[in-house]
Design brief:
This protein is 50% helix and 9% strand. The chain is α+β, with helices and mostly antiparallel strands. The longest helix is centred in the C-terminal third of the chain and has 20 residues.
Length: 408
């Protein structure tokens, strides 16, 4: 029996990154051998065991053979005669197909260290084409390591896979899982750009693919193209917030523009309402968590109102705060404002401009929240009467701060 450290932990160790989890491969062993040493079997599809003390995962060396379409159509062979190189060969990228022996010697049969140095994402073998999840994984690694490039031959293979409909076999839950992880990476826009580059975006996220080539008024959008703008907004959201929900809302804020009739271009009247409905459909398709959906719907529907905050009457400001559920969910208002700020900054020349509109919404909420309902109750008001009086006092509070000379 021989044990090797493998996969991402080897890659990250060579890159000098902090290690999260270590994975191990065991060569020359059977499940009975592992259990005799106190390891606990946890793998359902192939033999994976937990170490009795460290609880790290140890998998028996294995090979895989494609037997059916899709990413689950594999037969796994795990046996003592499977070599380390055979196990590494089934992995996706060369930078993930390295191992460290017990003596710390690097085992690198597919030149992953060289690709790591040259900053290239390259597939290990033609078997890459058997698993469409690997398209998503390459795109996610492009987001994690934005200074890496996808090898030409790997991009060509991904394009062939997408053209043959391999991505059609991906289930929504897996697409969402990879997307959510990508949103938390260093540059999430590269995830979507890599998918578009190989032709997978139009199959997985047709609503986003449709934005490219859709013009916007140059007066407000020097970049003109809505797809380009969307990626710029996502970059700005990434810059100002680590919250994947904010980034997701920024990604989908203008999705309604893809459904604007061509005869109305470059204007997009009503895209906010259209976009909100499209966000709901997208989130339903991928079974996205409710907090992602709800924030993205608000960003799609109300980002235009937020940009016009300085022009809104106190009554309208209060209506928007109520529609945003800001009194019960002030933390979500902050998320919404970050997505709107990213939208405002996601244009050439606007990247570092201040966004006072966020301050208007925050100050208005603060002023409204300072209104004390207890005197209204003490005065004997009940039910609708309290609601009307409370609303009137909140309007007065917003009017007071908006009339101040230093108001944003």
């Amino acid at each position: 029996m021989k044990i090797y450290q493998v996969g991402g932990s080897v890659r990250d160790q060579l890159m000098g990154l902090a290690l999260q989890d270590r994975d191990w491969v065991v060569v020359g062993a059977t499940p009975a051998d592992m259990e005799a040493r106190g390891f606990k079997l946890v793998g359902a599809d192939f033999p994976v065991f937990l170490h009795p003390e460290t609880h790290e995962e140890y998998a028996l060396a294995r090979t895989e053979r494609k037997t059916a379409p899709g990413y689950k159509g594999f037969t796994v062979h795990a046996a003592p005669d499977v070599t380390l190189e055979q196990d590494l060969q089934r992995r996706d990228l060369t930078i993930n197909a390295m191992a460290l022996g017990e003596n710390g010697v690097l085992i690198d049969p597919f030149n992953g260290a060289r690709d790591l140095k040259d900053k290239i994402l390259r597939h290990v073998s033609p078997a890459f084409a058997e698993d469409p999840v690997r398209i998503l994984r390459v795109a996610r690694f492009a987001a994690r390591f934005p200074d890496f490039r996808v090898a030409d031959e790997t991009r060509a293979l991904m394009h062939t896979m997408a053209a043959k409909g391999e991505v059609d076999a991906l289930v929504p839950e897996r697409i969402w899982a990879e997307t959510e992880r990508a949103l938390g990476e260093k540059k999430p826009s590269r995830f979507f750009e890599a998918l578009r580059d190989c032709g997978a975006l139009e199959k997985l996220f047709p609503e986003l693919a449709r934005l490219y080539g859709v013009p916007q008024p140059e007066k407000y959008h020097p970049e003109i193209d809505t797809g380009v703008h969307t990626m710029m907004v996502l970059d700005q959201a990434t810059r100002i917030s680590p919250d994947a929900r904010v980034r997701f809302a920024a990604l989908l804020h203008d999705v309604g523009k893809g459904a604007t009739p061509k005869e109305e271009w470059p204007h997009h009247i009503g895209h906010e309402e259209r976009g909100a409905d499209m966000v709901k459909a997208i989130c339903a398709r991928f079974k996205a968590p409710n907090d992602y959906r709800d924030l993205a719907v608000l960003a799609a529907k109300y980002h235009g109102d937020c940009h016009r905050a300085g022009e809104l009457r106190p009554a309208t400001l209060l209506e928007k705060l109520e529609a945003l559920d800001a009194f019960r969910r002030p933390e979500r208002l902050d998320q919404f404002l970050l997505a709107c700020e990213a939208d405002a900054r996601g244009r050439p020349g606007y990247e570092d401009k201040p966004y006072p509109q966020a301050g208007i919404f925050r100050q208005s909420l603060k002023a409204c929240s300072a209104v004390d309902v207890r005197p209204l109750i003490s005065a004997g008001l009940k039910g609708e009467a309290i609601a009307r009086a409370l609303r009137e006092q909140r309007l007065q509070a917003i009017s007071a701060i908006r009339s101040q000379p230093d108001a944003p």
